[in-house]
């Protein structure tokens, strides 16, 4: 998992700066700068969540991450194989194979880690549970619209295939938060907040830079997106670093794992 985390962090940086390696690997044409930054935020969120699970030795929390992989990558593989059959694109076919392997890895990770004992028995704070419920609703609405090919959902231009892929990324994140609600506990919530914070850090500056020049018909969408990013970031910062009962360094004093 440390190797997986390192790969995710590498590709987060590579997509953010649009390194030639990352651009060549991405199978969709007409992908603009903002889309690459969004992909970078997804990789950064995955790396942060995984790293927290490893650092805190909360291996049971990897189950939600495995579910996230499965929900995102399985549908992506179907879409990419369809693209490969239609366009004869070797890049799409190869990326589809990678997605299949990633989905199988996610399924295995979920089945393995959900049976492991929980080390941290602290409950998820009520405000965090309420925020997760809001995130789930918002992600289902936005992700569902994009999977159904609704136009202009995101505050930047995307192709039809790109919109479907980004929609499944939102739905995978929704599944991750649903798992945290069904298996409530700080052992799950901390990693989810760490991932959301990394996602926010990658996107906030590019979004703020985009606000003055965005088309009027998309300014409202971008403004809402920025508000959600700021509020979720502040929530994560408070509970991960300042709240006495949940801040990260308190985990070092926890007792051994319990079932």
Describe what you observe in this structure.
The chain has 259 residues and is an all-alpha fold. Helix content is 74%, strand content 0%. Helix 3 packs antiparallel against helix 8, helix 4 runs antiparallel to helix 7 and helix 6 packs antiparallel against helix 7. The two termini are 22 Å apart. The C terminus is likely disordered.
Could you write a compact summary of the structure shown?
With 259 residues, the chain is an all-alpha fold. Helix content is 74%, strand content 0%.
Instruction: Tally the structural domains.
Output: 1
Flag low-confidence runs.
Answer: 254-259
Terminal CA distance = 22 Å
Helices and strands, in order, run as HHHHHHHHH
The chain-level mean pLDDT equals 91
Strand content: under 5%
Global structural class: mainly alpha
Rg over CA atoms, rounded to whole Å, is: 18 Å
DSSP summary: helix tally: 9
Count the strands? 0
Form type: globular
Largest sheet: none
Percent of residues in helices: over 70%
Quick tags:
disordered C terminus, mainly alpha, globular, 0% strand, 259 residues, 9 helices
What's the structural blueprint in terms of helices and strands?
Blueprint: H1 2-16, H2 20-25, H3 33-55, H4 62-87, H5 90-113, H6 126-147, H7 160-182, H8 186-210, H9 216-242
Helix pairs in contact: 1-3, 3-8, 4-5, 4-7, 6-7, 8-9
């Amino acid at each position: 998992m440390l190797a997986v985390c390192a790969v995710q962090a590498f590709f987060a940086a590579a997509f953010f700066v649009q390194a030639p390696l990352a651009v060549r690997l991405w199978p969709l044409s007409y992908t603009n700068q903002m889309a690459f930054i969004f992909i970078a935020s997804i990789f950064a969120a995955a790396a942060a969540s995984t790293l927290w699970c490893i650092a805190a030795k909360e291996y049971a929390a990897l189950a939600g991450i495995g579910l996230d992989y499965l929900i995102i990558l399985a549908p992506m593989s179907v879409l990419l194989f369809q693209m490969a059959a239609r366009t004869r694109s070797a890049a799409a076919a190869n990326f589809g194979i990678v997605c299949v392997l990633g989905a199988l890895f996610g399924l295995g990770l979920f089945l393995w880690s959900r049976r492991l004992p929980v080390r941290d028995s602290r409950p998820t704070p009520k405000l965090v549970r309420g925020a997760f419920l809001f995130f789930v609703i918002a992600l289902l609405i936005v992700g569902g619209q994009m999977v159904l090919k609704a136009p202009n959902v995101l505050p930047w231009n995307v192709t039809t295939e790109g919109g479907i892929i980004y929609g499944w990324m939102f739905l995978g994140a929704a599944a991750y938060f649903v798992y945290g609600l069904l298996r409530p506990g700080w052992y799950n919530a901390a990693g989810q907040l760490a991932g959301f914070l990394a996602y926010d850090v990658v996107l906030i500056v590019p979004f703020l830079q985009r606000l003055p020049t965005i088309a009027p018909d998309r300014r409202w969408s971008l403004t809402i997106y920025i508000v959600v990013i700021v509020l979720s970031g502040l929530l994560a910062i408070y509970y991960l670093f300042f709240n006495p009962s949940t801040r990260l360094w308190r985990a070092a004093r926890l007792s051994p794992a319990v079932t």
